[in-house]
Design brief:
By secondary structure, the protein is an alpha/beta fold. The chain contains eleven helices and 14 strands. It has a seven-stranded parallel sheet with strand order 5-4-3-2-1-7-6, sandwiched between helices. It has a seven-stranded antiparallel sheet with strand order 8-9-14-11-12-13-10. A hairpin with a 2-residue loop joins strand 8 and strand 9. Helix 6 runs parallel beside helix 7 and helix 9 packs across helix 10. 46% of the residues are buried. The structure holds alpha-D-glucopyranose.
Length: 440
């Protein structure tokens, strides 16, 4: 049986903490109604109203190589696709169900093509897998917190065999861990409820599940949602890791204000998962996209607090990532191409957040992310002069100097970087300075 071992854990997390930035992809039948991935539940849609989408699913433009290229060009180092979401529709050729992409007009094993494309671009490959399954007859219906038929007494549960459902769940996870090559991340979603009926932990037979996963996929990274959801942290945070502990905490649609430490004040690995608009799955009328300029700063914020950003795209029914998302990815990619070294392998600086923006750190190097202009030279808050070995503009590699002159002599405890006469920063979103520290 799998047991937590700190040294093994820290070894398997290293690439993930260096990567810092990944793509989340929510895609499935729900892209056709185009009202988000929870449409069956939010609209309490009976199965018979959802099945037409199964018979229509034919994403003629699906091109996983294009998706993988966009992720890479955006500076992302890993990508996670929904292999199965709560609606129970499988984007892979499962032998345990007919409710799968290979049985639709699409006729393709989407997961296999996605994993091949992502690996070909040199990215790490992850799959999201829903613990909930609103299609499966043995999953609780009436009275469940989320099931589309939760308010229908005629959908009572007395003839449902939850253990048979768990055999199905475990069987599909075994298929994914056996038939699709090396998986780097398994992103379960999600646990819920309280008390004896809570759908958490051993209710999923989680120890058995994780032991199987880790035997089949040594080194795989698993999220914390066998224990919690976006709400809650999990047993690693408790400082008492269960066999099915999450390897990282998964704050959702939020960046933890002060980063995340465990109960004993030890750094925790965490990843904020965030949508570009307001939906994970494609939503035709949701055009409220976060601009690239904002998301660049949010990525910097995550890294400056010791975390990762998993940024979501929701492809449409034809298999296209929305143009708005593509433009945002391209904008982030242009910044990352110049400044990625201030993100990859970086983390908390252990210093106060400066007025001008944020600081990320890698060993003896600090990256000052300048979000706003200053009057005159830029104060490198938190440093004293003899700590500074060199200053460089990250984007160009050009040398910058410490500012001298009577204006700055008033503040001998502060180091100012002289960025020249232009009062406006060259990169209006985030101009990055690299400060090599003198080894004291
Ligand atoms: C929430 C949403 C789910 C989505 C997940 C991503 O659990 O309900 O649809 O897949 O967040 O983190």
């Amino acid at each position: 049986m799998y047991r937590f071992q700190r040294d093994e854990y820290e070894k398997r997390m290293r690439w993930y903490q260096d990567a810092r930035f990944g793509m989340f992809i929510h895609w499935g039948l729900y892209a056709i109604p185009a009202r988000g991935e929870w449409v069956r539940s939010t609209e309490q849609m009976p199965e018979e109203d959802y099945m037409p989408f199964f018979h229509q699913f034919n994403p003629v433009d699906f091109d996983p190589k294009a998706w993988a290229r966009m992720a890479k060009e955006a500076g992302m180092k890993y990508a996670v696709l929904t292999a199965k979401h709560h609606d129970g529709f499988c984007l892979f050729d499962s032998q345990l169900t007919d409710f799968k992409s290979t049985n639709t007009p699409c006729g393709r094993d989407i997961v296999r093509e996605f994993l091949d494309a992502v690996r070909a671009e040199g990215l790490k490959a992850g799959l999201y897998f829903s613990l909930l399954d609103w299609h499966h007859p043995d999953y609780p219906h009436y009275g469940d917190q989320h099931h589309p038929m939760r308010n229908h007494p005629e959908c009572s549960n007395e003839n449902r065999d939850f253990n048979r459902y768990l055999d199905y769940l475990h069987g599909q996870v075994r298929e994914l861990c056996t038939n699709y090559g090396k998986l780097d991340i398994l992103w379960f979603d999600f646990s819920y409820g309280d008390g004896p009926e809570a759908m958490r932990g051993e209710k999923w037979r989680a120890t058995e599940l994780v032991t199987m996963v880790r035997e089949l996929q040594p080194g795989i990274i698993i999220d914390n949602r066998l224990e919690v959801s976006g709400e809650g942290f999990g047993s690693l945070w408790e400082g008492d890791p269960k066999p099915y502990h999450g390897d990282f905490v998964s704050p959702e649609q939020i960046i933890p204000p002060n980063g995340l430490l465990d109960k004993n004040g030890k750094d925790l690995v965490w990843e904020a998962c965030v949508t570009m608009n307001g939906n994970w799955g494609y939503c035709e009328t949701d055009r409220f996209f976060k601009p690239a300029s904002m998301l660049i700063k949010k990525l910097v914020e995550c890294v400056s607090k010791g975390g990762n950003l998993l940024l979501n795209v929701g492809p449409d029914a034809k298999g296209n990532i929305p143009m708005a998302s593509q433009e945002i990815l391209a904008g982030i990619g242009r910044w990352m191409a110049k400044n990625g070294e201030s993100i990859y392998g970086c983390g908390k600086a252990g210093m106060e957040k400066p007025d001008t923006g944020r600081i990320t750190r890698k060993d003896n190097t600090l990256y000052y992310h300048l979000f706003e202009n200053t009057i005159g030279a830029v104060p490198l808050q938190g440093l004293c002069r003899d700590q500074v070995k060199s200053i460089r503009w990250v984007a160009s590699g050009a040398e910058a100097h410490i500012a001298k002159g009577w204006v700055y002599d008033n503040y001998p405890d502060v180091v100012f970087a002289d960025l020249g006469p232009d009062p406006v920063l060259p990169d209006p979103v985030d101009t990055v300075l690299k400060v090599e520290l003198a080894s004291l």
